[in-house]
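QA checklist item 7 of 12: single-chain prediction sanity check.
[x] sequence parsed
[x] length recorded as 265
[x] structure emitted
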Amino acid sequence: MPLITFDPFRSLGLPARYIHPERWLEHREALAHADGVLFPEYWQVNALVHGLGARIFPSAASYRLGHDKIEMTRALQAAFPDHVPETLILPSTPAALELALDRLGLPLVAKQPRASQGAGVALVETAAGLRRWAEREPVLYLQECLPAERDLRVVWVGDAVVTAYWRQGPEGCFHNNVARGGEVSFDDVPHAALGLVGRIARHFGIDHAGFDLMLVGGHAYMLEFNVLFGHDALQQAGIRLSDPIRAWLERDRTPPGEPPVRLAG
């Protein structure tokens, strides 16, 4: 049986049948027996994996860790503490604000747990600004501000790096995201950063993500990873992900604890 996809854009170039996510229950038999179910919505993951035994891509681990920065960061702190910027995850209380100012100083970076493409991320430069942020966030996710002007996006598919590139925002802009006007450079990507991404991805069973890192004094810090990352820079470089995705699925390899994926034909 061919592949089934819930996202036709991300499945371009793959022999996949599209099903609208909201109509998934009408196709339970096909989903349960498909060679692979591609790019489900997050709310579908548990039902597909545990309810139907479906073989999903990206992996369940990719979705579960990538969906929420808090869960992601705690996992990274547990397994790779030397590569995580100092991060505080606290209830939004006056005592927590005092602790953050004492531990992280100013400026610091405040993030909403579930956001991407630079949304929900702010550079906080004053105590008053931090108090305003806390007024609208029940949980504080606060990080030290690393002294770096650009970040590194590493695209990982299957069990390998597909490409990597620097992102640097316009002058005076805090965000480096391509979606916010960041410039891209594929030059002089450090091999040590690629090796770190490989160790992290294999450790957690992640098979599709865009990892964002910063380098300070040659040391790589993992900021976050996005399972459904933007393709703007890839399109500019003429890079298509359909070939590495298919190659990965056809290798009949999958993170531990999940059923294997096989392509028909």
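[x] summary fact logged: The mean pLDDT is 91.
[ ] second reviewer sign-off
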